[in-house]
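Section 5.1 Outputs to date
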Amino acid sequence: MSATQTITQEDTQTERRTIVNDFSITVGTVNGSGSQTSNLTLLRALFKMGIPVSGKNLFPSNIQGLPTWYTIRVSKDGFLARREEHEVVVAMNPATFHQDLRDVVPGGAFFYADDIKLDITRDDVITYPMPVKRLSMESDAPTSLRQYVANMVYVGVLAQMLEIDPDMLYQALNFHFKGKTKPIDMNFNVIQAAMQWAKDNLEKQDPYRVEPMNATEGYVMADGNTAAALGSVYGGVQFISWYPITPASSLAEAAIQYLPELRKDPETGKNTFAVIQAEDELAAIGMAVGAGWSGLRALTSTSGPGLSLMTEYAGLAYFAEVPLVIWDVQRVGPSTGLPTRTAQGDLTFTHFLGHGDTEQVILLPGSVNECFEFGWKAFDIAERLQTPVFVLSDLDFGMNQWMTRPFQYPDRSMDRGKVLWEEDLEKLKGEWGRYREVDGDGIPYRTLPGNRHPRAAYFTRGTGHD
């Protein structure tokens, strides 16, 4: 069937079949309009219904005003990749209305805000207008928030037409707003009003719907940057220095969220960590190198352009044998490139990062669960080998929601590597060398600032040493 072929009533009755839990929902909105809350509400509600889902955000590299799309893949078989087909499309952006309409598969469902006064140029799709402005104006939301709660109108209409459980929508809102009754109720009231409007005014003509399953039991939903941050927290991170850059910023932001809850001294109530937003990437890695040298478990996070700026300090840490962890959440390059598109192009660059004779240690997570696992393992490897460890994730892992098994607490104690303390130096009678080969493994012993032994101090070298 061509994209322009008309579906007659007879064709519809003959060919249409009910398609359950096996389609994609794509929402076209404007960046900065608050649609992320609505999209995540839909995603989490479907997940809570036991249906395998994934969410992919396609957004511009600006703060607000340009087109953005969010695709939820509903797959009873557990497939999580983005598909080319768009069976259910929601158009909230006049600028992309015709593009969104073109993207709907023949026989698909096209929902649109009825204040968009543009022609429907296809007769082979099912169209559903939605009174977005009217319902948002009639809501009890403050005037300043109505443009944001307006997105909940399409949540409610989709819920009614696709048979999404409203109780699961409420639970999703409760999770998002952390149990705060006022924003939960304000948004849910709009969803309920939209569901009622759709029930009274729209006739179901498309074949798509959802029904509860039991395929998400034993899974959670998380993004890779949050997983990496939590893994780092459980790996004993003590110092984070970072500079904002898409798509890595949310890694440090997640650490900022969880560290105060998980890393306070139980007796004094004081933080056992420090997080510093540096003035640029050079300062961020410079601070991390200093923290790693002083014995702290240190981390910085960035993306390709930031990693380019960090090259000299990374070479210093490599040659001076200073442990630290660097997360590179990759995006499209070169130069500034495409900040909001995923890529995996930094591997060779990172392996040889530095101006000659370097072979950096790299970890490559292949799942959100491995983002968590490498979050803590990277510190053990860095301190055991006394070298920078790079973890190369990407935007797709880092910023999108994934179904994953619950994260497993580290199954072994921290490996701090070869560290000499006062009693160790006493046994050696102070005879040691920071860069002296002892065990035949190429890894020397080190001391840390604060060691009171008079022979503990050493001279750190970024030039040739033995």
